[in-house]
Each structure stands twice: as C-alpha cells, then as structure tokens.
DNA sequence: GGCTGATTGGACCGTCCGGTCCAGAGGGGT
DNA sequence: ACCCCTCTGGACCGGACGGTCCAATCAGCC
C-alpha cells in the first residue's frame, strides 16, 4: 500500500500532518478545511491529494495516528516506569500538567469524537492507544504489588482501568468545562485508592 | 427573548427538537443537515428558521439542552435517592444499562465535542449538567455518611467527583471502543472504594 | 365577516469546500 | 545528456447545505 517516497516527499508529508494537527487542535476538525491546511503548510491542493489519495478522511486518519502516538509519548518516561509510589506521583503530576496545559485542546477526543467513532480505522487507533495505556498502568500496579507496596489482593487490570478512566474522564470534563479539578481529584483519588488496604467488600 | 407561542407552535417546535436529537444521536452533528431534519419532522425550511431564528446553531443548542436534561432524567429516580448501599447499586446497574443500550450514541458528548466546546452557551449547558449531577452524587455520599454506612472521614465532594469521573470516562471510552467493560469496572471500583475504610494516606 | 399575527410551504440563492485535472519543475539514476 | 517518476502549482468543477424570501393558510378575536 505504500508508495516509494523520496526524503523530500516524506518531509512534505510530515509537514502536512503536523500542520494539520496543529490547526485541528485549536479549531477542531469541522472548522479546518483543506485550504487552511494548504495555507498553513505552504503546500498546494495537489500535494494534499498526492500524499493522501483518499482525501480529507485519509489525512485526518494520519493526523489521528500522529496524535495518538503523542499521547503516551508525552507521559514518558514516567508512564513506562511506574515502579514505586514516588514515580506514580511524578506521573500524576505530569498528566495534570499536560492536560492543564492543553485545556480545551484534547487531541485525542478532538479527533475521535469529531471523526465519527463508527469508522473502524479510527476505532482501531483509539483502541490500540487505550490498550497500550492500560497495559502500562497495569504493569505499574503489578510492580507495586511485586514490591509489596500495595495490597496483594488488588486486581492489577481493574485497578489500571480505574486509573485510566479517571484520566480520560477528568480530561473529558476538563475539555467541556475548562475546570482542571475533576482530573486532579479523580486521578488523585484513584491513585490513593491503590494504597488503601483491601477490605472485603460484599456484593449487593 | 421569548416570542408568543401558540400550543400548536410549541408542539411543532418540540417535534423539531426531538426529531433533530434523534437524528444527531445516530449520525452526529456534522452529518445532519437542515434538510434531513426537515424531512424527518415533516416541516419546512421556514419553520426551522421561524422557531430557531439564528439557524442551525440555535437549533443545535436547543437539542443540547434537551439532551442534557435527558441525561439525569434517565437516571431517575435512583440518582435522586442514593440513601443506602442497595440504592447505589441499583443506580449503578441503571447507569450501565443506559450506556450499554446507547453504545456509540452518547447524546452528551455527541453534542459537546462536535458543537465546539469553546462556545460559552454550550459550555454552560454542560457545566450545569455536571454540577447538578455532582450535587446529586455528593448528596448520596453524604446520606451514606449520615447513615454511618461509610467512613465519616470521607470527603463527599471528592468522592462524588471520583464517581462522576468514572461514569463519564467509562462512557467516553465505551463510545470510542464499543467496550462496556471500562464503565463497568471503573464505576464498580469507584463505588466499592466508598466502602473501604479510610486508611491514612500520606502524600508523596 | 374581516383584521392581525402566528404558522406553513417550498422555490431560490450564494458560498464554502472537497475533489479533479493538467501542466510544469525537480532530481537522481544510467 | 537523457528519461522517468516524483513532486509541485493552481485553476476549475460540482454538489451540499445554510440561509433568505414571499406568498399562502390558519386561528383567535372584535
């Protein structure tokens, strides 16, 4: 499916993706036209279709991939080394800092929500991202268990899901309300809960 | 700002809003045109602009208000009476059932994300909804505290935020991945955490 | 019955924008 | 030097869609 791509071509393609991503972060998919991208990246219409034959949808997909990769990238190296309580806190601070910085402009949801979550290609990008993210968190929980820093009865997968949900939920509400407190509180609570002793909880 | 509106007019207006909401839930804002709404509601172009003078944006706002109201409505009466552990569980089941039913079609995010979260009017609708939602949850936590069913040292506001974030985060990921498990696990964990004894947690 | 304003129908317009096309410049391999 | 394929420029097209307009109808009210 890939065409031969000279270094020059690859650079242009990259410039287009990054320029488009930049625009979309600020203005959202529906408010960014091909002409905007063309202008912002000093390219021409034909180049856009040269590198993204299927047109806008194709380009948006490339942007989505780019942004999805960025999400975990931004949380590194903390996210990849959650082996102690202190490192979890460092990661937490990083996450809050990132989202506080981008505020409205959540690259992830800006694309998924506005690109149509029905599209299987989009779906797959997000699913992969969440799986990776969840995996890293679960590994971190497991590391704490191994180190005896959290109760051994904790289910690493479930705990990772709880933390992940706190981040995505908090980020979503930050985006909608411009309040960072949801993310701060939810994430802090989620991490704190890892530390609490596991009392037996009877199902209702 | 309100015009005199005969019963007949009010009914038509209502029909438009509900028909538009229906369409948007399935196809998303960008994929629903005024002509679609016109056709689906057996109205004419002039009626759309008669009842929503500012055009599509105006109509979308009305739809957003309608959907926002629906969110809490759907969770009643459980959400309004979280006075015992059993009732919390009943609410939890209801929430999961609701979101499992609508899957991709999350009325809330379908509108906020695609309507531009920069728009202050949209922002206000969501903010109000989340405030109300949070308030009801906090009241529920407080009720448990009063009944001595949860540790008295719990911060009702923070706990409510944690639960709310679990729901919105889980719902968001459900929308993106079509997996209900995030919501199930996160919400269950969040509620279970209310029951756990509050061990002192030292800040890192 | 006629007046007034709400209500409805639907033709029409202008623009925005994704997409097409073709012609030309660049540049590296033989 | 030559050729071929990549790369670039930008004019152009056609459809979709939000929005306008005017005329017709309906409903309460004196």
From TrEMBL, chains A, B:
| Pfam families registered for this protein in UniProt | TetR_C_13, TetR_N
Residue ranges of every copy of the Tetracyclin repressor-like C-terminal domain listed in the record:
103-187
Domain of life according to the entry:
Bacteria
Keyword vocabulary terms for this entry: DNA-binding, Transcription, Transcription regulation
HTH tetR-type domain location, by residue? 16-63
Task: Kindly provide the name given to this protein in its UniProt entry.
Answer: TetR/AcrR family transcriptional regulator
